[in-house]
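STRUCTURE:
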């Protein structure tokens, strides 16, 4: 409790206003208090034919999705698609046990997780081929125990997917590989369409939120290196409500743009268990709308910002898909012009 009070004292400015009578955030109850969450955080029960079809195929192929493992509130919306949105699914590879212990994450941890499944790249690619989704997010646990930290395995998953479903857009939500740029390059050049790596929070909060082997500067370097290696689009995500200050979010956005990050998402941090970090404040929908406007004004190509947004939320949004395809078409045109000039 002492640590929680210290974070409150050194944390957000609850006097931050958006103008008029709009509130930026409301206090979260103390851990032992039983208080209902704000109405804007109510979950929607997943449904729909596409949702049921994807769920059934997952069971048959024994593959895990972050959507289910993390009990994501947007699972029905992302899997179903429709109304101008692309059906999206997020697959978690390299097992369900992580070598790190971030204080916001409910994934199991171990210094020596089980060995990788050599058939996983092929099984994952076969599953995606049969799903009919237009956009796939591949995420993973951290595997600091492996010589290449799992980078080859992730790259093979993408290559197998592209070989079977070249029309499907692939985003990889990548680990930081302990800052090993050779591993970053391996993933960034494997044929993916979007390289994502989450900074998770602002710089000051990083040591208390993420595993000690992760740090703010390292994550920025990973994102920049991925773009330099050839990733067409880079992306990151920030959780709000952990005690960060508005001015720190502003500084974080400036740093991300300085490192050529294209896409950013904002979502409300939700405590998975009593053993994890407590929520300090609930950002209002108006507060999230504020950061969307700010980020778009700074030049981010796409911004998703809302209480229930997660890093993979509507990753296949039509605008993002159109942007990726336009860049691909532009690259093809450049190659064709060069070939014509050489002929």
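SEQUENCE:
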């Amino acid at each position: 409790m002492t640590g929680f009070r210290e974070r409150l004292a050194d944390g957000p400015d609850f006097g931050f206003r958006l103008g008029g009578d709009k509130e930026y955030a409301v206090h979260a109850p103390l851990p032992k208090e039983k208080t209902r969450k704000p109405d804007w955080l109510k979950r929607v029960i997943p449904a729909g034919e596409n949702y049921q079809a994807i769920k059934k195929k997952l069971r048959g192929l024994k593959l895990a999705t972050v959507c289910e493992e993390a009990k994501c509130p947007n699972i029905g919306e992302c899997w179903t698609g429709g109304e101008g949105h692309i059906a999206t699914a997020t697959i978690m590879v390299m097992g369900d046990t992580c070598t790190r212990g971030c204080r916001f994450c409910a994934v199991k941890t171990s210094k020596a997780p089980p060995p990788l499944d050599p058939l996983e790249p092929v099984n994952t690619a076969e599953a995606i081929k049969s799903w009919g989704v237009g956009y796939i997010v591949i995420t993973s646990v951290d595997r600091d125990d492996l010589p290449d930290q799992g980078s080859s395995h992730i790259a093979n998953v993408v290559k197998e997917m592209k070989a079977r479903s070249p029309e499907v857009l692939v985003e990889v939500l990548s680990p930081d590989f302990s800052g090993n740029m050779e591993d970053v390059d391996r993933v960034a050049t494997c044929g993916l369409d979007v390289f994502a790596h989450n900074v998770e929070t602002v710089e000051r909060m990083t040591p208390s939120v993420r595993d000690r082997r992760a740090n703010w500067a390292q994550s920025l370097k990973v994102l920049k290196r991925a773009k330099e290696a050839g990733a067409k689009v880079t992306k990151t995500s920030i959780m709000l409500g952990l005690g960060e200050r508005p001015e720190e979010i502003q500084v974080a956005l400036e740093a991300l743009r300085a490192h050529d990050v294209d896409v950013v998402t904002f979502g409300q941090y939700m405590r998975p268990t009593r053993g994890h970090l407590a929520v300090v404040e609930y950002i209002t929908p108006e507060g999230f709308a504020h950061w969307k406007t700010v980020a778009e004004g700074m030049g981010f190509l796409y911004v998703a910002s809302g209480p229930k947004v997660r890093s993979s939320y509507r990753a296949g949004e039509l605008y993002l898909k159109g942007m990726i395809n336009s860049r691909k078409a532009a690259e093809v045109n450049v190659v064709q012009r060069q070939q014509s000039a050489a002929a």
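REMARK: The longest helix spans residues 318-342.
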